[in-house]
Design goal:
Length: 181
């Protein structure tokens, strides 16, 4: 669908294959389910995620998985080379944070996103589309719940009483679900 990725600046790689050679499609060895986007479209999505906040590769994989409710997770073999390419193109900068690489958007990367805002917004909306009544929508809600519980449970300002409140809410929810016919 998206075969060209316009490049700007001295780090342009016009010869980069638009599909990127990244696995993850159905039946791919070691794949993680069907591909949600081709490599060309995934470039926009990953760059948008980095524009939202600086991220490590693992953060991007987990964020994508979370946004689609855990039903899809791109492989590291797709994400890490893509992030390296975005760096080579000058769309992201890299800083070290321990033994991890933190990727941040550059002005060139932001300009590229701005030039392609309509497509970027459409791709990001596609991430958020649960299929009503499907296992994916249930998985999405469960994933959201997990993240909220972890976030509130790790809050340094949280008291032991907060943890007990969260546990009580979860117990009530589990009881209600058990009572469903």
């Amino acid at each position: 669908m998206f075969h060209k990725f316009r490049h700007h600046g001295p780090r342009s790689h016009e010869s980069h294959h638009p599909r990127g050679g990244h696995g993850g499609g159905p039946g791919a060895p070691g794949g993680r389910g069907p591909r949600m986007f081709d490599a060309g479209a995934m470039r926009y999505v990953v760059l948008q995620l980095i524009a939202e906040k600086p991220r490590h590769g693992y953060d991007i994989i987990k964020e994508l998985e979370g946004r689609v409710g855990g039903g899809y997770a791109p492989s590291p073999g797709a994400i890490y080379p893509l992030m390296a390419m975005l760096y080579e193109m000058g769309h992201v900068s890299i800083s070290s944070e321990g033994n991890k690489k933190l990727h941040s958007i550059t002005p060139e990367g932001q300009a590229f996103l701005d030039e392609n805002r309509q497509m970027v917004d459409a791709l990001m909306a596609r991430l958020a589309e649960p299929q009503a009544g499907s296992r994916d929508s249930l998985r999405s809600v469960m994933h959201e719940l997990k993240h909220v519980v972890i976030e509130k449970g790790r809050d340094p300002a949280a008291s032991p009483a907060r943890a007990e409140q969260i546990a009580a809410i979860l117990r009530r929810a589990a009881d209600e679900i058990r009572q469903l016919a």
